[in-house]
Design goal:
Structural class: alpha/beta
Helix content: 40-55%
CATH architecture of the largest domain: 3-Layer(aba) Sandwich
Distance between the termini: 50 Å
CATH superfamily of the largest domain: NAD(P)-binding Rossmann-like Domain
Shape: globular
Number of strands: 8
CATH class of the largest domain: Alpha Beta
Number of helices: 15
Strand order of the largest sheet: 3-2-1-4-5-6-7-8
Number of domains: 2
Length: 334
Amino acid sequence: MPTPVAVLGAGSFGTCLAVLAAREHDVVLWARDPEMAARIERDRRNPRYLTDIALPRNVRATHDLGEALRERELVICAIPSHGVRDVLSEAAKSLDPEAILVSTVKGIEVDTGMTMDRVLEDVLDPSFHPRLVFLSGPSFAREVAERKPTAVTLACREEAYAVAVQTALSCPWFRCYTHDDVIGVEVGGALKNVVAIAVGMCDGLGKGLNARAGIMTRGLREITRLGVALGANPLTFLGLSGMGDLILTCTGDLSRNRQVGLELAKGRSLTEITEGMTQVAEGVRTTYAVCALAGRVGVEMPIASAVKAVLEGAVNPEEAGQMLMMRQLRAESE
């Protein structure tokens, strides 16, 4: 039976999920920009993201948040992490009291060090908390929109709601698995972007495949170490939201965070790089947030710290790599 769906955020991932959901459901796509919403509604295409993908007739676009949420049973949040608190605080006034909310946001709030699950719990009434579902995994928006096979995970503390979303979104080219480790899925989805910047720098400097594999593997170790300190199950990081998303983001040419690393290796400044991007590279903000969070919980994260040093201009990518290679020797399990 069709479900009334709202997608908050008309970026590339919000657009692809609106197209995906419209296969079975009635969809409203919310865009912050009134002009963008009007052009999507008129032209049946997003004028900025996935511009060649036609939107089905049962996707309606609006910039009115209250209208977008009215009588929507499933709400998908696909906005940049720095906008989640403000948008969802406003959305809370219009959410259907029985709605299931799905977050696809991969990031950590800079000011608070909160993962997105904690941000949502902070701004939404406790009655919504059991119905918060978190979608993560290796999923470039363009490939989802082009119906290329994709597998993701849906984490929720109440399995029944994850299963409900799994049923609503799964189709022959988009396979959803369920999970109960919200913290692990959130940490994996956010931190892989930081490692992808490091791998981009490594590749941009031509350091080779050995070095790339080393950064990815030790990066996964860092992600796991912080996740476990926050209460995650270490096995989660071997799954889609951990290793799966890490592999994709570090090696795929569609990865915005990898592109940031590649450009840093060319000697370009962070300001110059980000000003030339049309989409958000979440790993930049996440690097600062995760280093602060790791310091508070006493977890050592040398790769994230090296990326932060480059972003701040304290060292260049070559020097950051040398710092990592010359660290004190230790056991791999550390």
